[in-house]
Write a structure and sequence with these properties.
There is one protein chain. The chain is of the alpha+beta class. An eight-stranded antiparallel beta barrel has the order 1-2-3-4-5-6-7-8.
Length: about 200
Amino acid sequence: MREINNKSGAFISVVVILVLTFLMIFILSDDITFWNIVKRLPTAVTIYGLILIVFVKWLWKCRIFKGWLVLIPDLSGEWTGKLKTTYTGTKTGKKKRDIKIDAIIKQELFSVSVTMKTKEMKSYSYVAGFDIDNKQNRNKICYSYTSKPRPEYREGSPIHDGTALLDIIGNPPTKLEGEYWTTRRTTGTIELERS
């Protein structure tokens, strides 16, 4: 699995923003000497820092940067769908039918988190990353999470950890589909669409 942790895109981003910052100093400077550049270095670092913060939080989502500077898709927002599981309730012994799920994905350039909710539980990711490889036609998000059922359901459904591996479908992404597995030895599928 070739994980894109935004390292290649981040390096290019840093170089581009640094070059643009120094170009701005040269344009604004009337006398270009070594000492004038050194004197303006704090200004350049401040401008660079501000541009980097704005880029990491918001600008990376702009289409103009996709594919060459930013390699990851923008999944942030609300998603709805269904979950199919092999889990059987301990009280009934019956397999559960499709379960309606809602998900919220929060994303910046260097981080992504997934919160998923059903009628009975809420799960929070604690690690997440992308597996993006255009040559291999792979476009996936993988995350591990802790699932906390509501107190009234915990006797039959204890708190547990799990991992999900979802295909990212569409450009821009409109669907997420894949599998999950948990520490309580259950598996299943997840299907999500943008709300």
